[in-house]
Specification:
It contains 24 helices and three strands. The chain is mostly helical. It folds into four domains: about 80 residues, no CATH class; about 70 residues, no CATH class; about 120 residues, no CATH class; about 180 residues, Intergrase catalytic core (hpI Integrase, Chain A), CATH 1.10.443.10.
Amino acid sequence: MTLEDLRGHLTSDSSLPEATRGELRSRIKRFAEVAGKHPSEIIADPASIRTIAARANRHLVGLSKGSWANVVSGVTRAMDLADIKVHRRRRNFKLSLSWERLLDPMNRRDRDELHRFAGWCSVRQIAPEAVNIETFTNYLGYLQTETIQFNPKERWHVARRAWNRVVASRQDASFPDIPDTTPQGWRGLMWSDFPESIQGELELYGRKMLTGDLLSDEEVRAIKPVTLNGYKDKLRWYLSRLVEDGVPIETFGSLSACVETEMVKRGIYVHLAGRAIDDKTRPGLHGLMTAILSVANYLNVPDEHRAALKKIAKKVRHSPVGMTEKNRERLSQFADVRAKRLFIGLPFEVAAELSTVMSPTVRQAQRMQHAALLALLLHLPIRIRNAAMLDLDKHIQRPVDTKPGRWRVHFEAVEVKNVVTIDGELDGETSALLDRYVSVFRPRLLKSASSALFINQHGSGKGPSALSKQFSGFVKREAGFIVNAHLMRHFAGFTFLDANPGQYETVRQLLGHKDIATTIRFYAGAETKNAFERYDHVLAMLMESKVGSVSEDEL
């Protein structure tokens, strides 16, 4: 049954008052509109509704959080009336006496985290003493198939952890500890599982790669710690798969054993597991061969051996053109000009909401901080690593005497990923927003002397990972868009090229690319929309020529 079928069912249900039928039909229609679909395209089941509701952007149509909740509630009520299995209640379960006695002495957090599970058990007449792994497995199935609550697996984990923490740990009763029975991803063996000899060689390899040696016969360039960790992980996964395939783990007593040509070929076949070498498998194989070649160069293997490895690497080389499909999909959120305006105006709307605040709370200070970060990345699309590094004394030049004016941001080339200097001036409105954040909101987070621009509530500078995660959460909460910090660079490139087709040099300078070929490779598809629009214009002109006279010059 689709939502369109559900609307039809409501129309024919004479047991409901006309006003109720009209209201529910309206809410179903509104739900589909916000989702950007026709009601006939949406399956009326809890899992589908949960997924679509999580992706729908209520902000674009001006719906408040409460109004959107009412819309979703109307849809689930209509499903319930049509005998579709959907649980609409949250914590209003009637607990059995045994569960009430168990939960009553708990603190609020533990009671809240267990209440839904306790209610579910109460309805099914499952006493606390009868709870076991099967009970929790069935509860997970209920959350996934009969509720529209977001992230049902995490809600299950919350209840399971609370049970283990508060109930299973009790000494006065024998309640079972509930393990995580959800499928786990493959992680491979740990380095500690391999012979000590290869662990020692790996340590020496790491030291050499972090420092480099430009004067050796085989020039070794230093790599970053994150790159080294990536190489080690790829090697560990590769060796783990070989061990699973039957190679004795003792075989890998040295790094040289890992880069033997025939062993590398076997590892690739194991990795492929019958799949073809294509755009889906190439990225992983390319990364693996990069790590293997790095080790081979470090070991200074013979030229013939190195040539054989390079031949394999060439066959699995991954040369991506443009950005990933995931990033393209996320950029498509901004195809509508209303979405772009909402996104671009978000930091200033937040600042306007907080314009009268002079003694902010920690939460208000954090919200203004995220707005300041968004404003900065919109106007100066730097990498999140550089944004986290921003230092008021080192990287930012502000107007003298605290007068209003534009801020300038400067990074030396050695501080930037691709060793290209960043030197940009922010517009007046963005500078004013940042200035207010620094003068009014940042001090609320400051616990000790620090010149970091973006600090946490303990007063120290935030790392790139934390800052990026919080940024994504802020944008999702405030505007409903799914955005990561790095996407801001793609947003800048696509937005500019959409308005200025062909001006790749400007985008190259804006994003700090060394080579314009990089810019073109990433954003070659940005002008597709303009190309189709121009072609549509040509077709329209030709159609007009059937009725009127259109000159070749007009075409």
